[in-house]
What does this fold into?
Amino acid sequence: MILYHGTNMDIEYIDLSKCAPHKDFGKGFYTTTKYDQAKAMAVRKSLIFGGKPCVISFEAPDDILDTAGLNVKIFPQTSEEWAVFVINNRNRNFKNIASAECNTDNKYDIVFGPVANDTLTTLITQYQRGYIDGKILLKEMKYHAPSNQCSFHTLKAINYLKKTGVKWIM
It folds into this structure.
């Protein structure tokens, strides 16, 4: 499986301590199977933080999401379960970190599923505040372009990634 990471600089090795907390699937190293999605992220990051946009490619075993010894959480599509998981990971005040509905404690080595883009984030916020119910949330989530993210949260999972190249953009 080829995975892409869009960023504003080349990296020698993945350092999980430098990853930002409170992301969709928790603090981790985020990749995607979609090159164009990684490229857009690289451009966005370089506009915000400076640097030069690039897409770093990694090779992972095709069966990495089924690898014995790794605790993997998969969301095949947007769902209420996925939305709650994202809400809990993004919520700085979420306290039940032992819950299976979050990855604040990196209980999952890898999490795979859709990206909560800005439109989906607005929907999730409306749901969280009680403005819309789960049925409306699910209906509205179905209309958005497919995207995915595969996040790595432990050194054990990171060790399955092999850097294969860097493509500079622009």
User: Anything to note?
Assistant: The mean pLDDT is 92.
